[in-house]
Design a protein that fits this description.
This protein is of the alpha+beta class and 436 residues long. It folds into 3 domains: 2-254, Spore Coat Polysaccharide Biosynthesis Protein SpsA, Chain A (Alpha-Beta Complex), CATH 3.90.550; 266-319, no CATH class; 338-433, Sandwich (Jelly Rolls), CATH 2.60.120. The protein has helices at residues 40-51, 63-73, 88-101, 122-138, 179-187, 201-211, 217-222, 232-235, 258-263, 321-325, and strands at residues 2-6, 30-31, 37-38, 56-62, 78-82, 110-115, 118-120, 142-147, 158-161, 167-174, 191-200, 243-248, 252-254, 269-270, 273-275, 283-286, 292-294, 300-305, 308-313, 333-336, 339-347, 350-357, 366-367, 372-379, 382-386, 389-393, 398-401, 407-411, 415-422, 432-433. The chain has a 6-stranded antiparallel sheet with strand order 20-21-22-29-24-27. The protein has a 5-stranded mixed β-barrel with strand order 8-11-9-10-12. A hairpin with a 2-residue loop joins strand 21 (339-347) and strand 22. Helix 1 (40-51) packs across helix 4.
């Protein structure tokens, strides 16, 4: 089974746990069978592999998310990087070309596209496996999975099938309606459009060539920034005559807001939180090493991270985005392919960061023009290379690099450093990579 997972979004509706780098799908809020915290992307990956251990998974995403994906899934998935955001049709077209030209997938194989961040159970992916069979047996160009609505939602588009059978031809599609209009759709047996599509690879490549003039993956990648922004629904789905929909009646949630996210939490608190006996329906997610005390709170969400603190009623939590859009702040925490970093202190002429490198990983060999750096090892062991000279490092060692000095660190075990950046112009863009 070939699956393309679409990973997008800036995650501003889940501030302060999300930022421009860490979107909602990377927040570790769920517990797996080992009682370990996992993110949406880790959960979806695990569920796919449980249903089909041989599934080939490709994540279509932006450059900003690549490090987080590699951090959480290591090198267990293929990543198709979009040079810029051009909406879902160009993203799927690029991923299809990636499968054909880079991964050498046969054009007659079935490909399934779905979001990376639905909150679902095993039966969702069991149904996705069925889509592959339906494409082959029903001889349809396109097969969708339609979600059985649980209420007349205004948040989703609708698929109107011709019949109420398990597999039906599609009558029409409807945009996000008002609640009253949604009630009428439900009377017709309408389904939520969950963004799940199945097709043969050659079908999608043909559609891509109808819209875009390109020869292969490399050519498409090179001109990606010039492509028209258009959704897969508009470009392909709503124009396709040979299309069917498979009903899905299992659990399916879009956890795009704080209110919907906390509904999926198994406990009322993650991190240090204390509730007195008068608290009701209050959820706390705390990434800080400080306790949060709640007293007499009702229907409240408290979220705390190094990015900030959110206190909101559940009713108001969906309206956070315009307020977060006004905030201008430095990213305080991020996961990288080699580990993670967290900003501890910001001063006018210094920046202090805690850096964690996973065992066997290393930073790029690099230098800075306008700042000095001092590293202090606080746990683990590894090696540094400074201007070509390699040395072993252990707990308590201090390494000093002046501006212009080429340097890198290699973790033999998990390695933690306190990095202090010193200079009048500390800038994230002040970094030059070098060959080691």
């Amino acid at each position: 089974m070939n699956i393309i997972l679409l990973s997008g979004g800036s995650g501003k509706r889940l501030w302060p746990l999300s930022n421009d780098i860490r979107s909602k799908q990377f927040i570790k809020i769920f517990k797996n069978e080992q009682n370990e915290l996992e993110s949406m992307v880790q959960r979806v990956y695990r569920q796919i592999k449980t249903v089909d251990e041989n599934a080939k998974i490709t994540i279509a995403t932006s450059k900003k998310q690549v490090s987080s994906i590699k951090n959480q899934l290591n090198n267990e998935v293929d990543i198709c990087v979009e040079p810029s955001r051009r909406d879902t049709f160009p993203a799927i077209a690029l991923a299809a070309a990636f499968l054909k030209d880079v991964k050498k997938v046969d054009e007659n194989e079935v490909v399934i596209v779905c979001p990376v961040d639905p909150y679902v159970n095993r039966d969702y992916f069991e149904t996705i496996v069925e889509l592959e069979t339906i494409v082959n047996q029903e001889k349809s160009n396109l097969v969708l999975m339609g979600m059985e609505p649980t209420y007349p939602s205004e948040k989703y588009g609708y698929i109107i099938p011709k019949t109420k059978e398990d597999i039906s031809e599609v009558k029409t599609f409807k945009e996000k309606p008002t609640e009253e209009v949604a009630k009428e759709y439900l009377k017709e047996g309408a389904l939520w459009n969950g963004g799940v599509f199945a097709f043969k690879l050659n079908y999608l490549l043909k559609k891509a060539h109808e819209y875009i003039e390109f020869s292969d993956y490399e050519d498409l990648y090179s001109k990606y920034d010039t492509l028209t922004k258009i959704s897969f629904d508009y470009a392909v789905v709503e124009k396709e005559a040979s299309i069917k929909v498979k009903r899905f009646a299992g659990e399916w949630k879009d956890l795009g807001t704080w209110n919907t996210l906390v509904e999926a939490m198994e406990e009322n608190a993650l991190g240090q939180a204390i509730f007195n006996e008068k608290c009701k329906n209050t959820h706390v997610i705390n990434e800080l090493d400080l306790p949060i005390l709640c007293m007499g709170t009702n229907d409240l969400i408290v979220a705390a991270s190094s990015e900030g603190i959110l206190v909101t009623t559940k009713e108001e939590s969906s309206y956070i985005k315009p307020y977060v859009d006004k905030l201008e702040q430095q990213v305080m925490f991020a996961e990288k392919s080699w580990g993670s970093f967290q900003v501890l202190d910001i001063e006018e002429d210094s920046l202090t960061i805690k850096v964690t490198l996973k065992a066997g990983n290393k930073m790029n060999y690099h230098s800075h023009e306008r700042r000095d750096e001092v590293w202090t090892v606080i746990s683990g062991k590894g090696r540094t290379i400074v201007d070509g000279m390699e040395e072993n490092i252990n707990v308590g060692d201090v390494i000093t690099m002046e501006a212009g000095c080429k340097h890198m660190v290699i973790a033999d075990t998990e390695l933690q450093l306190i990095e202090v950046q010193l200079g009048k112009e500390i800038d994230i863009n002040d970094k030059q990579k070098h060959q080691n």
